[in-house]
Amino acid sequence: MYKGYGEMESNIPNDKEIEVLTLFYNRFYDLYDEITNDSFFDEQAHIRFFKLREAFSIYKELLSYEPIKKYVEWMKNGGRPPLEGVIADGLFSFIRNLLLHFPVFKIWDEVYINENMATWIKKGQIDKFLKKCTTIKIDGKGTLHYRIWEEKKKK
Q1: For residue 3, how many other CB atoms are within 10 A of its CB?
Q2: In whole angstroms, how far apart are CA 23 and each of 16, 30, 95, 96, 110?
Q3: What is the CA radius of gyration of the chain?
């Protein structure tokens, strides 16, 4: 029974999990290294977009792995600063869902979302995330902004 981060019955993945996790992690970190490399912006826009879409898809798949899912829940429930859980799950899932459910964009600069798109069949995860974000306030005021820290570049 899970009691908190690090307190699962078994923290050791089985052979099947290791096989799949290795594939996902290797591909994700290969893409991450490419995306965070300065030469990434020398590539054609549609190639960059494909790599970003792939990275978000892999990340979302990993979120369904029970130990990772439990860790993200721990983050959301006070284990980390409050918005880290929103970023780790909500924001990245939103981006993946937007890119997957609207495969009409060819490059990142074309990507957008509006209410009609978010609710065209039903009110799903995209709409839910956007509505949730409109209620988030930093210190009771302001607009929510996301930034990613690149450790290698110290920026």
Answers
A1: 9
A2: 11, 11, 22, 19, 30
A3: 17
